[in-house]
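Why do we bother with a discrete structure alphabet at all? Because it lets us treat a fold like text: something you can write down, compare, and reason about line by line. To make this less abstract, here is a complete entry for Calponin-homology (CH) domain-containing protein. Read it the way you would read a sentence in a foreign language you are learning: slowly, and without expecting to understand everything at once.
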Amino acid sequence: MNAAGRAREPEAEMPATEKDLADDAPWKRIQQNTFTRWCNEHLKCVQKRVGNLQTDLGDGLRLIALLEVLSQKKLGRRYNARPTFRQMQLENVSVALDFLERENIKLVSIGGCRGRGSRDHSKAIVDGNLKLILGLVWTLILHYSISMPVWEDEDEEEARRQTPKQRLLGWIQNRLPQLPVTNFNRDWSSGRALGALVDSCAP
């Protein structure tokens, strides 16, 4: 075997778990693209846009704008409108994370930031820690999109009592009364429920 063949060997034998955790794992790119579109859908009303989710939240400006749009509140603290230095960027991101804390929105603990304070989360976001940024956006989606009463005829008080997972399952059960879907594992794995759900949304 030549040297080039030997050099390729470790990559070919990389365990699936390591492939899934790699920075260029396909699921990360899909999630990043989906979350970027979600952010841009909300930011367009304030004429802002995220091009690269990993870097564009790092100065705090788009993150603050996104939180103000989602919450329909002003963050209430001054921030740097032109954050040219790292310290200014860290301060801006801290303003956003402090707002989440006041709103009792818990940031998903991911990677090296598990169990640490908002200062470490701020550094991770400014430094472009993609895992933490994806976790942050997922937290915002859970709170502002899934946790709010969004289904037709949904009772607001009932929505508060249920977890986002319970509410999503309830919505699927309403769309698919002919199928016994009671969980996202056994009842979801055959693909029948997914096919029926797609057909019910776009026949």
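What the structure line is telling us, in plain words: Residues 26-147 form a domain with the Actin-binding Protein, T-fimbrin; domain 1 fold (CATH 1.10.418.10). The chain has two domains: 26-147, 156-188.
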